[in-house]
Design brief:
This protein has a nine-stranded mixed sheet with strand order 27-26-29-24-23-18-1-25-28, with helices on one face. Strands 2-5-8-11-12-13-14-15 form an eight-stranded parallel beta barrel, surrounded by five helices. A two-stranded antiparallel ribbon has the order 3-4. The protein is built from 13 helices and 29 strands. Strand 6 and strand 7 form a beta hairpin. Helix content is about 25%, strand content about 25%. It is α/β, with parallel strands linked by helices and about 575 residues long. The chain is globular and about 80 Å long. Helix 6 crosses helix 7 and helix 9 packs parallel to helix 11. Bound molecules: alpha-L-arabinofuranose.
């Protein structure tokens, strides 16, 4: 069997489609199907879960040029802005219907005092910030909330656990969420106005911000305090044992999770959290998984200059996200089956930092720390990652790409009045039809691609990684995910092969394909990218010649492409 030709027999054997397919012999479809070198079999009868809109989330941190210049240009700026917020940033986040926005860090969060960003901007203190930069505090809590409301995104606040006491945490909740107007005292005392709500109103926002999603610290195994899981569990319990609640729905607390695939962290954390019989207010477990541009060193490799071998290797290591998700889901499930955790709520995974992280060399300027260029290779990684999230819709409650603008795996680059979107932006947009749809199982059958660098062990992940993972030898020859809303099936597909088009027979079990249309992001050269002089060098185009035959679709996915198909079922 050639590398191009998957065993059709073994594919059919393992599929209950076999009978249906055999009965097609002699039909005109047979001529087409024998030309296929890949198969996609969608199973609407095997639903996974509704895809949480929050998996398409974003992240901005006080780091390099993310906030200052990226998001915040100031009200007096010549750059188009809405109350000081870069208009292009708002418009782009609106274009991808950003559901949640995480702030203020990252590592920055654990040395940030939220009080510093309140009140008249001219009077705000300047302080040393985590990323060796002076923080002017011109962009604070209110500016962030205005950014979220301009976009239509929910705020996701990362609270400081390392350098502030639990009191600051619950008072930040109070400041954000206490209703305007007098509150019943729930005692013999008369109703009165909450002092922090009054302060918020004095600072310009009478109505509460109603923040329900709260990260309790960040990377507490590293920059967030160098803690052990047991030490962090104790802190998490202390911070969340009591917090003020104003709405009828409980707040959603996200605990600091593993560094990449560090299963030991999750196992020990859950053991320690549930070692105390008191119910935990735990909605999510954060996961940070970055794909370094180099298998040997974290945050290394060049964003633009890479070989074919490095291209395949990066996508292979990026695909490890699937293992990371299932490993930590299993670790949490094992904890939940433990008698001590009986009755505890089920916890979702929150992959609130992910992306490809390269070394220096393509940053906008030295002061734009961790900014990097983004090519078609990153677009493919985006597709692979979002497909993994969609396939694991039952496990993942929210996610945030790191970061939205001018940092790591960005959707946007901005410097002064110069602005462009990256190929990653286009993939986020192309994947939107999956949002809130029912994820269904789909089998992708295509020859795997050997990873040319598959003898090098991978790092576990994160910015201060521990340990190594076994080398990964192969990359899926075709991968993707499927979801259904009514009679519309959305199928997103990544063909990572640099030279081989994948002619694919797409079948929907128990249904017939009536029509299809789509969008594809593809370039002849995977190094293709946008920059300020060529903002539209990479952009998607419509998929042409999609004609289903006898209920199935034969489609050729071009080399190194991301495709989104909208399929109407009969
Ligand atoms: O996204 C950049 C940094 O990466 C974040 O501040 C930190 O949480 C992670 O290590």
């Amino acid at each position: 069997m050639s590398e191009d030709q998957p065993s059709r027999r073994s594919f059919l054997k393992s599929s209950s489609l076999a009978a249906a397919a055999i009965s097609l012999q002699g039909s005109s479809l047979l001529a087409q199907s024998t030309q296929a070198n890949a198969y996609i079999d969608v199973m609407p009868g095997e639903p996974i879960a509704t895809i949480s809109p929050e998996i398409y989330g974003h992240f901005i941190e006080h780091l390099g040029g993310v906030i200052y210049d990226g998001v915040w240009v100031g009200e007096g700026s010549k750059i188009a802005n809405v109350n000081g917020i870069r208009k292009d940033f708002i418009d782009t986040m609106k274009a991808v219907e950003a559901p949640v926005l995480r702030w203020p860090g990252g590592c920055f969060a654990d040395s940030y005092d939220w009080h510093d960003g309140l009140g008249a901007r001219a009077k705000r203190p300047s302080r040393a910030g985590f990323w060796k930069q002076e923080e002017s505090n011109q962009y604070g809590l209110h500016e962030f909330m205005h950014t979220c409301s301009a976009i239509g995104a929910k705020p996701y606040l990362a609270a400081n656990l390392r350098t502030q006491p639990a009191r600051d945490f619950y008072q930040e909740i109070e400041y954000c969420n206490a209703p305007a107007g007098d509150l019943p005292s729930n005692s013999a005392a008369p109703a009165h106005l909450n002092a922090l709500a009054a302060e918020r109103a004095a600072n310009g926002d009478r109505e509460p911000f109603n923040v329900d999603l709260w990260g309790v610290g960040n990377e507490s195994w590293g920059c967030g305090g160098n803690m052990t899981p047991e030490e962090y569990a104790a802190e998490f319990r202390r911070f969340t044992a009591w917090t003020p609640s104003y709405g009828k729905d409980p707040l959603r607390f996200v605990a600091v999770g593993p560094n990449g695939d560090d299963i030991d962290w999750t196992t020990r954390l859950f053991k320690a959290l549930y070692g105390n019989p008191e119910g935990r207010h735990l909605w999510g477990l954060s996961i940070h998984y970055y794909t370094s541009g180099s298998p040997k060193k974290f945050a290394a490799g060049d964003a633009l200059a890479f070989t074919d071998d490095e291209f395949y290797d990066l996508l292979t290591r990026g695909s490890l996200m699937d293992k990371v998700v299932t490993d930590h889901w299993t670790a949490m499930s094992n904890a939940a089956s433990n008698a001590l955790s009986k009755g505890q709520p089920s916890v979702k995974l929150v992959v609130d930092e992910w992306g490809a992280w390269y070394g220096k060399g393509t940053e906008l300027a030295p002061e734009y720390n961790l900014s990097q260029q983004s090519t078609m290779r990153d677009a493919l990684l985006t597709g692979i990652t979002l497909d993994i999230f969609q396939r694991h819709a039952d496990k993942i409650g929210a996610a945030a790409v790191a970061q939205s603008i001018n940092c790591i795996h960005s959707l946007m680059l901005a410097q002064g009045d110069k602005f462009c979107v990256t190929p990653t932006f286009h993939v986020f947009k192309m994947y939107l039809p999956h949002k809130g749809a029912q994820s269904v199982r789909a089998a992708f059958t295509a020859p795997a691609i050997p990873n040319p660098m598959g003898d090098i062990p991978s790092q576990v992940g994160g910015s201060s990684y521990i340990g190594q993972l076994a080398p990964i030898k192969t990359l899926a020859g075709l991968s993707g995910s499927a979801s259904i809303k009514g009679k519309t099936l959305t199928l997103t597909v990544v063909n990572p092969h640099l030279t081989k088009p994948m002619t694919t027979e797409i079948a929907v079990r128990g249904a017939s394909i009536a029509s299809a249309r789509g969008t594809v992001l593809v370039e002849k050269d995977v190094h293709a990218h946008n920059d300020f002089s060529h903002p539209d060098a990479v952009k998607p185009s419509a998929v042409t010649s999609l004609s289903p035959t006898t209920g199935k679709l034969m489609h050729t996915f071009p080399p190194a492409s991301v495709t989104s198909l909208e399929i109407k079922l009969a």
